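Attaching the record inline, Q. Sequence:
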Amino acid sequence: MRRKKDFVLNRGFVIYTIGRFLIVLALILIIPSTIALFEVKEQSFPQFLFDEKIFGFIVAIILSLLCGGVFIAAGKKQISGSGLREGFAIVTFGWMIFTLLGSLPLFFYFLSNIESKSLGQIFLSFTDANFEVMSGYTTTGATILKEIENLPRGILFWRSLTHWLGGMGIVTLAMSIFPAYGVAAYQMFRGEVPGPTTERLKPRLAQTAKILWGVYALLTLLETIMLMAGKMSLFDSLSHAFGTMATGGFSTKNGSIGAYNSTYIDIVVSIFMFLAGMNFMIHYNVMFTGNFGPIKKNSEFHFYTGVILTAILISTISLSVNGLGSKEQARRSYRNNPLTETELVEKFETEQNKLNSWHSTLRFTAFQVLSFTTTTGYTTADFDVWPAFLRLMVVILMFFGGCAGSTGGGVKMVRVLVVLKTILREIKTMIQPRLVSPIKIGGEAIEEKQVRNIVGFFALYILIFIFFSIVMSLMIPDVTTAVTSVVSTINNIGPGLSGIGAVENYAWMPIAGKWVLFLCMLIGRLEVYTVLIALSPVWRKRL
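Structure, as predicted:
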């Protein structure tokens, strides 16, 4: 029997550990602040320190260092109990604090650009800054920004860097720098790395974290070089590589990847979106040990590839044969700022031109299918004017997500595969009551306890999706927009349908709605159980 103290949260240890991680955050913030410094270097000292482009970074660095120091001094290095709640609490509350401090550069920039400094406008700026940064950390890519290309480079780089940090995990990065703490360290790793299982490449978690970050950085560097070969600037190449490998979707262009109108860039980004949606353990085995066995034997990878290829085939055939959806469908589609008839005609002409040949159709459908399935969220086509059938398929793909151990969001392919196999087994059992049929993945049987955990996770995920969809429908007049805003944020994708479609954003949403979606992004990225265990009062009582 487990002791009561095993379920009591050691707040001191949580505070101490988050304090150490905040020191790492302060050091990271120096990078975008240096870029911001070059933008204001022509101003005299100390005036440039108060420039809107850099002031928020200075405040964020100072507060991160101060809070980190106070937390370390006030906390306790020792841990007692199981470490379960401590590990999950560090991840959950750590991400909230990282977001609050990381949003300060955007908050002060937004604040300097509003005419009325009323309390309502200040709170709106605070909400938008936190929404944007949480969207970055969770690799969601949902944005409240309208004119992205007008942002200072320091802000733009920080916005993209939040993707890259959140993709592999901020806590995982900090663990690779600071020593780990036994069981609690494993729970931190488990709470932040996506998927139902957390494999170790090395006995020590710090070593595993370093290897994962090394693979992640190497692939990011490779994509950056390849994008530069396509005549993309170093700044844009690095920013888009951050967004691709993190399956985030923040772009430095208003038109996302589509703004470049380059077949080469589309292909490069498509390849790396596919790689980012794979389990990074496979990348390690292939790149550093030359072991291609996991690719041949991994059932999840085969299912992942099969889903993508099937969706690309269906989309390409459908659009080649039937073309776009009807203009009447597009007229009925909700938009905060409805299109004029002239704008609607121009949009259809533009999108139809992308389907003028089978290989052009394949180019755009492959990109969008990969973007949806891996939950990256980049766009090269306005999928909101596709036929209703394909729009529904888009929403379904958003739930599938990438593989376990990838940077992708969603339910994860392995869970979908287990749920499908469980349903099939139940049907067989009804026909043959005495049948004993274990669920197998990759030829190996999964323990029934883990099967129950995955099915329970799936059911809870759907219930949370339904609950938040109802909440959002109370705030937004359009059901499609309300529901897909939850689908998009809880699966960490970014764009949805109608009011938050490929060419829309989240700026117009009510403040309360943004905070609901803020919570959806956090729950989706940390995969439900991490947040619930950290916050649940049940653990305060003896079970």
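The mean pLDDT is 86. The two ends are 10 Å apart (CA to CA).

More tomorrow.
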